[in-house]
Amino acid sequence: MNLQWRGLGTALWLALSLSLPLAAVAAGRHVSIIVDTSGSMDRNDKPRYTLLLSQILADLLEPGDSLTVIRLPQSEGSCDDGENPALAVPLNSTDRNSFQAKLDRLLYYGNENYFAAPVHTAQADLERHKDKARLLLFIADSGGLDKCEVKLTEDLKKLRDQGVMVAAINIGGVGAFDSNPAFTFTTGASDSEELTKSVALVYQKFIGARQVQTGRVGKTIEFELGPLVKDAYLVVVADGQMEALAGDGGNPEAAEIDLDHKGGGHALGLDGRRRDYRIVRIHHPEAGKWQFHAPELRQNAGWMLLQDSAMALRLVSPAKAAQGVNTPLEVELYDQDTGKRLNTPPEGLQASVELEGQKLALRDDGQGGDRLANDGVYTTLADFKQVGPQRIGLNLQSALLDRRSHVDMLVEKVGWILQADALGSVEVDTPVSLHAQARPTPPGQTSVSLEAVEAFYDGTVLTRLGDDGGNGDKQAGDHRYTGLWTPQKTGDYSLELRPVGGGSTQPITVPVKVVRSLRFGDANLALRLLPPAKKPLQGAKATLEVELYDQDTGKHLDNPPDGGLQASLDAEGRTLTLRDDGQGGDRLANDGVFAVTTSFARAGIQQLRMNLKGKLLDSHNEADVEVEETGWALKADPPGSVEVESPASLSVRAQPSIAGLTPPQLQAVEATLGGNAEASLRDDGKNGDAKAGDLRFTGLWTPQKTGDYTLEFKPLGGGSTQPVTVPVKVVRSLHFGDAKLALRLASSAKVAQGVDTPLEVELYDQDTGKHLANPPKERLQAGVEVEGQKIELRDDGKNADRKPGDGVFAALARFSQAGSQRIKMNLQGKQLDRQSEAEIEVEKVGWTLQADAPSRVEMDTPATLGIQAQANPSVLSPVPLQAVEVYVDGKVQASLRDDGKNGDAQAGDNLYSGQWTPQAIGERNLEFRPVGGSRAQPVAVTVKVVGSIRFGAPVPVKLGRTGSNSQLQGRLELGAGTVVKGEFTLDLNSAYHASGSSLEIDLGEGWVALDGHARPVSLNSKGPSSWPLRLRVGDCPAGVTAADRFTIEFAGADANGQPVRHSVPIELAITEDPWLHCWWPVLAAAAAALLTGIVIYGFWSPSRFSAKLGVLLSPEEDMNEGFFHPIRAQRGTGSGFYRDARVYVRPDFRLSASAKGELARLRADGRRVFIRPATAATVYRQNFDGAWEALPTEETTVHFGVVYKDSMGGVYFELRNG
């Protein structure tokens, strides 16, 4: 064997896996193992795990189980070598020490691979245990049966045909066993871990287990046991000495727990180390999680859990069956220990039977021939085609099980076929006649007559049916068998009719329902229709109810007998079952009222036929039911609020009330109010209807009164269609609802004579007195009548109106007459024509004012304002004005005087002057109001106020000098000479750029970099005039000297759109780091990359053998007798670090990665291969004329097709591509 173990852990796994036969050798099982004991095992099994395995296996076997271990012979024999008892050690359960001593002497290594004698020894051993489940397992590295393969394959096929499972595990790969037809299961293993899995797979299949739990021993050993486990074994193997295992508290219960089963054992390896094992046996454990631990265990150890279930299947129906007839096969699930049936199978359990090449599922669901669901008895119907003895297979499978067993059946030709008369329902305590007709098969063939037919139920004979002309049998000898049976209990039964005598006849089953008396006293029973709550609608589901009553008395009868009555209803050619069980439309069970839910395809009067059947009862009554024609379902669009005396659109959608049925045409929909028709809605594409024929009916309705109403939409035509209603609210105005609108004067009630005066009136609610804003422009018209002249009032922000849509209407009016006057205000709209009046005092004007103000001024800068007062010629000697006040936003902001002071040029010239300093930017409305003196009308002008910005001398930012990994702080200041009036948004930027450093500023929302991208900054008179500034310097920055000039720039535009710029110098210096400090990571990375490249090249550059390259080794010069060995299949023949791949040819016809015992070395070199003889060896090469020549001691090129040999002529080899 060429497999090298990888330490204790893997080897322990192998030992534990091989111990899996403990479950396989449960009672009634035998295992034969052929172990490869060739010389290679001396190297590969120094711990002697084969010995340890055998001891473990011996301790796990129960009485009645058996085991035989067979080794290979020391010398070669012939393929006909027979049984050799000297190669085998059978288990001696009575003398444990003797068996272990024999195993110790048996399992030594050193011979070659000779399989004939071991196979024939196993064959004889298995024959002696043919009454048990048997397994023959090969564990070998030969890859086949060598020269005896043909002979031994035939012998193994015979064993397989006898039911022996023949399995093989080929060490190093799949090997030749994989294609050998004698093997039931084969698997390969290229390393020790795969060998572990392979052994487990073999034995799982043999014992019918699906799951094996394994692990390494830690603080605790934790595993989970399934239900109905007969025995569970916990096996622990340690790489040293160990004590007995201990159980942890809290484990589930078990019938028996042996913590040191048979005292454990040990094996002394070839390496001088003692290895112990311990076993815990758990008998009939409860399902759940279990925990154990190994006290004072200091060595590595592994564990495996093995479970053997007590569940199995056995045949309970007769082992005889008739040919060509569906035969019920019944098997039951039982406990092998107690022999009792398991009435409650575990979840996920599946059972099947294999017969005559087909697999049939067994079922326990009360269907397909199974008599009772979930009783642990599985059933299938089998039709046997072949006559004679047969072996059928029983399969039991679950998540943990995959068990198979066999049962012998006898299939006979059928003599008679029985056919029973259907019984249906029968009365309890009333004799009932049973009949069975027997017909010969094949037809026309005379068979021995049946003696009788017996009726069985639950294994008990109920009655006997005869063909003797007595006990109800009409005619003797007509093969019709008759008998009487009086049922004692109500219920559903399945009677089995079994033939007595008369050859092979298959039993049959007859279902029967036993009920109470069908007769309901002496009442004359019948059914009558109960009037439906509403007429059924064509195509719609409707529930019809009929009641049980006495035709003689007319009284309703409730509580009818179960199963004694069958009620049905015939409608439209269909027979419908009437129910009185509280389901399917029936409201209350057993109340004597039967119901059915159905639908009618036709409208009109339908005739119903009600049927009532029972024993000695078959009554029929008829009734009529009117079915309404299907109609439409209407859905109205809610109009919500509508305006009085304004046409409102009404819309109703129609769709068939029963999908798939088209009702009669709907002519129109009528909208009614209080029973009176208000509007007609149609689907004709006219009068507001968008599209004809789209089933949307539309019309117009003009309400006459305000209030809350309910409109009812009634269909005209269209079959059975229900009206629908919608609420609607009628209001005076859709905009102001039910508000009582009117106008009132909002401006001053005093005006000046002969001057255009703004008159303002506002819209308000007369009930609440509240002002109403945002009136609808298209629905209200306002006007005012002044001195007989009508003037339109506007609310559109034009002319005298100050703001559109605010509910304040305005117009310019000139009063020609002084004194008190009344003006009329008119408001008109839908159903609205309201007038109101106001008293106006018209005063004579003494002065007319004319404003003199600049159109554009600067914020926070005084501006000169002037008013020229001109005397009205019609007024003699008007009193001079005291002053003129300037109002802005309703507040006095300046006073203009004619006193020759504060900017007034000359006193008494009626030119009023003064200074005004604006405080806000934008369009400002200045109102000049006279103070004192004769009457004068105020005037107003609009002035635009703008801002300004002027920068003073720049204030340099002095940050100073710094080095790497540091930070400098400073402030950016506008300086005292900078003046900002208003608000301006400028772009802030800097051209500073130096690698490894960043200039940053905090404008109030966190630090941002000045990196060439403009940053917006807002400047105003009340805002900040300086901002924090910092310079962050990282590792290895670029140097900056005092000679380097950098600035921070403000850029934008002033109020006039002219560009504005302001530049602030920055004074800073940065000292560079030393060169080596900055470049050492790059140098280190380059060095690491170079070293990595050297290492990678060291592994990549050496030459390798191609994947198909191999050496053909032969003991003769005829290379056709040789065996091809792929080079890369040998471990250690790959390339190394700066070392070409090499392999050594050995005199024992093997390839090796080791130079020990070499004949010659082969080395890969690019696409070539070089050969060099060993130091003490001579290698010959055959030249083109067939002569042999010795190779030189140095390397030479190997040529394909050239044969090489050793000096003795015992080994010939040739390089080939496989």
From TrEMBL:
SUPFAM superfamilies linked to this entry: vWA-like (SSF53300)
Residues passing through the membrane, by range: 1079-1100
InterPro entries: VWF_A, vWFA_dom_sf
Domain VWFA: 28-200
Signal peptide segment: 1-26
Keywords, comma-separated and alphabetical: Membrane, Signal, Transmembrane, Transmembrane helix
CDD domains in the record: vWFA (cd00198)
Protein name: VWFA domain-containing protein
Species per Swiss-Prot/TrEMBL record: Candidatus Methylumidiphilus alinenensis
Lineage, opening ranks: Bacteria, Pseudomonadati, Pseudomonadota, Gammaproteobacteria, Methylococcales
